[in-house]
Design brief:
With 372 residues, the protein is an alpha+beta fold. The protein has 3 domains: 137 residues, Outer membrane lipoprotein wza fold like; 76 residues, wza like fold (2-Layer Sandwich), CATH 3.30.1950; 79 residues, Roll (Outer membrane lipoprotein wza fold like). Helices cover 27% and strands 25% of the residues. The protein is built from 9 helices and 16 strands. The strands form 4 sheets. The chain has a 6-stranded mixed β-sheet. A 5-stranded mixed β-sheet has the order 8-7-11-9-10. The chain has a 3-stranded antiparallel β-sheet with strand order 3-2-6, with helices on one face. The longest helix is centred in the C-terminal third of the chain and has 26 residues.
Length: 372
């Protein structure tokens, strides 16, 4: 009996040791949140419910997440104005014989490739410089003709414009045909140039449209741009447009269908949608009461006088076994660089221990039987 008892004691000790170091795919919720009870905790824990979700949404607005800086649409003229660097072709008709401007036997003269200089002027024989910058083609034609009238009263002027680099929009990427696109009028808008550039490839992940204007950069998702006509921004000469896939992502960890970096498939992703993107909670492993979202705020986003977190590092907890928790998770927005952790169920560890104990007692019983 002493040998049997000794053998049983050895197996029990081995089981206890195994229970302390069970292999697991994720931490328990209690392990992650253990430090919240420390004297000086380094992170804040917020249990997300339907009651406090409006306040948490105010935190998101306070941090600037989800806001877009984009100019609204406006209307411009349907004709182009002349700018520095544009090229003008001027045709002057004169029916008089012995005209100062035409060769013998000809009724017109054509002066081509007149470049608008830095002062906004072009040079014409007999009238010297004529300022045309800022005028439409019809306005410039009328001005040239009025300058010619004292010299050639019967002259008639025709004018055509070829816009220079300063009167175009650059589309540098994310479209079928990138390039420089001359503005056909002052009413040229962002959707016009995207269409002229061949459109956005259909396979691009949640495409983001960027507009660079001087030292400012504006951005909006293509979906928001297409859905809201007020966002069809009026372009300005020398604007630069490019389109790129949405590079925002969150990290999926723990007892879920996949552990990886997951990119945002659309503008806004909720905690419930994040769980779906992660492949759901792993059966028999995950703790549905222990879904955590770990987030780090910038110092300027901490609450001082308005809504906001009290610490930079915040752990949001969700109980997906209740309707309250599910509705709250459906409204909770995931931020870029969040970590979504599906913690391990403590029941899974207990079942594993019981299995080990059962195995140990089974082996003990066999050993006892053999010893007899």
């Amino acid at each position: 009996m002493a040998a049997q008892f000794k053998l049983l004691t050895v197996f029990a000790a081995l089981v206890a040791l195994a229970a302390c170091s069970l292999p697991r795919g994720a931490a328990l919720q209690s392990e992650v949140l253990h430090a919240k009870n420390a004297e000086n905790p380094t992170f804040e824990v917020v249990a997300v419910t339907r009651e406090n979700i409006p306040g948490i949404l105010a935190w998101s607005a306070h941090s600037g997440y989800g806001s877009y800086h984009w100019p609204n649409t406006s209307e411009g003229a349907n004709s182009s104005t002349i700018r520095t660097g544009d090229l003008l072709d001027v045709t002057i008709w004169d029916s008089q014989d012995n005209s100062l401007l035409t060769n013998p036997g000809e009724r017109y003269t054509k002066i081509q490739n007149l470049e608008v200089d830095g002062n906004g002027s072009i040079y014409l024989p007999y009238v010297n410089k004529v300022g045309v910058r800022g005028l439409t083609t019809s306005g410039a034609r009328a001005k040239i003709q009025s300058r010619l009238e004292p010299i050639v009263p019967s002259a008639q002027v025709q004018l055509s414009l070829r816009q220079g680099r300063d009167h175009s929009v650059d589309v540098v990427g994310g479209v079928t045909k990138p390039g420089a696109y001359p503005m056909p009028s002052r009413n040229y808008k962002i959707l016009n140039v995207i269409s002229d550039a061949g459109g956005i490839p259909s396979g691009m992940r949640n495409p983001q449209v960027r507009l660079i204007r001087g030292t400012s950069t504006y951005e909006i998702s293509a979906n928001k741009l297409f859905e809201d006509g007020s966002k069809n921004a009026l372009l300005q000469p020398r604007d630069t447009v490019y389109v790129e896939p949405d590079e925002r992502s969150f990290t999926s960890l723990g007892a879920s269908g996949q552990e990886s970096l997951i990119y945002f498939p659309k503008d806004e992703v909720t905690a419930l949608e994040a769980m779906s993107l992660m492949g759901g909670l792993a059966d028999f492993r995950a703790d549905p009461k222990g879904v955590l979202v770990l987030r780090e705020y910038k110092p300027e986003h901490l609450a001082h006088s308005g809504p906001g977190p009290t610490m930079q590092q915040v752990v949001f907890t969700f109980d997906l076994t209740s309707a309250d928790g599910l509705f709250a998770a459906k409204k909770f927005p995931i931020h870029p660089d969040d970590t979504v952790l599906a913690t391990e169920s403590p029941v899974n560890s207990i079942q594993t221990v019981f299995a080990l104990v059962g195995s140990a007692f089974g082996l003990t019983a066999r050993a006892v039987a053999l010893s007899n």
